[in-house]
Amino acid sequence: MAQNKSDQISMKSFLLCALLALYGRLATGYRSPLNDFQRSEGRELVPNLWHIDRMQLLPGLSLEECAKRCSENLECRAFNYETRPSITCKQLPWVRDENTADVKRNVNCDLYEKKDYVRRCIVGEGKTYRGKVSQTQSGHTCQQWWSKFPHDHRWTPSAENGLELNYCRNPDGDGIGPWCYTTDPERRFETCNIPRCEDEVCITCNGEDYRGQVDHTETGLECQRWDQQYPHQHIYQPEKYPDKSLDDNYCRNPDASPVPWCYTTDPAVERQNCKIRQCEKVPQRLARHSYTTHCFRGRGEDYRGKVNETTSGIPCQRWDAQQPHQHPFYPKTYECKGLEENYCRNPDGSEAPWCFTSVPEMRTALCLQIKRCADDIEAEDCYHENGKNYRGVVRKTRKGIICQKWSVNTPHRTKINPTTYPDANLTENYCRNPDGDQHGPWCYTTDPKTEFDYCAIKQCAGERISIIEPISECECILFFKATHEIWFFVVFLHFDMTRPEHTAATEKMS
């Protein structure tokens, strides 16, 4: 009896310790060792033949374990993570800008390099900076750290302090940032004036095109990697937003927020803005020639025309007004988005130009009466009748979005799939028309904001007009519009649920 009671106490103590350990991990956040590295997808750092013996092979390690081993090893500066023919972690004592190895393409391998060795800016005071600047701000060449001439000093190079050759370093955490002794007998030491990461690259407008290397928020929290789902789950996975440069854990702006931001490694703080310098002089937009006024391309983010009512004829609300709908899209905050008057625009990367409406009961609506530019989407194939028997290999929508595979449920859960339509040839992510939609072949898309769309396929010669041709009227289509606050739907003109094509459209979106 006493033994059983003792066992129960031991078990309770064990469970309590486990819960405390788990709580401690959640309370302090989980920092991935991959945060120390900059990833180059599909690249491999291949050492020269006479240095290949310095590469350490560690088979079977997980990616995180490989990164952890490299982080703890002062000699390791990068690693190749190979997935085929077998999982192998290859630790390297160099990074890409050295003469000991070459970067080569390898679809079965990703290269991870320690940020401290490859970035050209400093974090904080730059105590961990391991770059190769070797000249001071006034142009003096740095003295070798192992040398005591022309200036004697107390520092001894080691793997811990990184005092390598004559590179600028900050071993004492000086507020001036990385520095060095100079080769000028009259000038003992001087700062190297290496920019801080938040100042190295400035942002214009709301920073959607920011591609700098800030990886901490404005309060100093470290950013979570975009390719990871912990501690915060999110939709902004790099493979789904290839044009947003969601690299490593750098601050970015994939959702058209006022400034670049990131998810944090603190479980209690989901996301925060990043502190990045605004450009003093806003440069002229390089792609100004892409502005359109009578039609739109892609998602219509460069549309600058003067249409100011929705598809169903409802007048738009002015962008500088907060009535009848309050919203965050202030013209001064989004100065590059053309938020003038009450014209239809697309400041948030939605599927097409839109606006807040002047009707209190309807928050937003699309402006689909604006024609798509004739040169925007080039049909890649053709189909007969309604395309139900189309078996081609086009996998792109009329908006240029890549199709989602029929057999997966991300980013959209599918009601039409190979299981529910076994005879429809729903292979890979090819455009198909399993439900006989009158508008032709379609697919679910890889854009989380666009559930499905019709494909860049026209009807074969001699048959009726294709959906990808510019049209003057929107007859019977159900559109869904996602805003930052709510979901709602608008039915344009006649929507007859007795017609099979309308039932099919509803089924695709349910």
TrEMBL record:
Pfam families xref list: Kringle, PAN_1
Protein name in UniProt: Macrophage stimulating 1
Species lineage: Eukaryota, Metazoa, Chordata, Craniata, Vertebrata
Keywords per UniProt: Disulfide bond, Kringle, Repeat, Secreted, Signal
Organism: Albula goreensis
Keyword Signal: yes
Domain Kringle: 120-197, 201-279, 294-373, 381-460
Protein's cellular compartments: Secreted
Chief subcellular location: secreted
GO biological process: regulation of receptor signaling pathway via JAK-STAT
Domain Apple: 32-116
Cysteines paired by S-S bonds: 202-279, 223-262, 251-274, 316-355, 344-367
InterPro entries membership: Kringle, Kringle-like, Kringle_CS, Kringle_sf, Pan_app, Serine_protease_kringle
Annotated Gene Ontology cellular component terms: extracellular space
GO molecular-function terms, A-Z: receptor tyrosine kinase binding
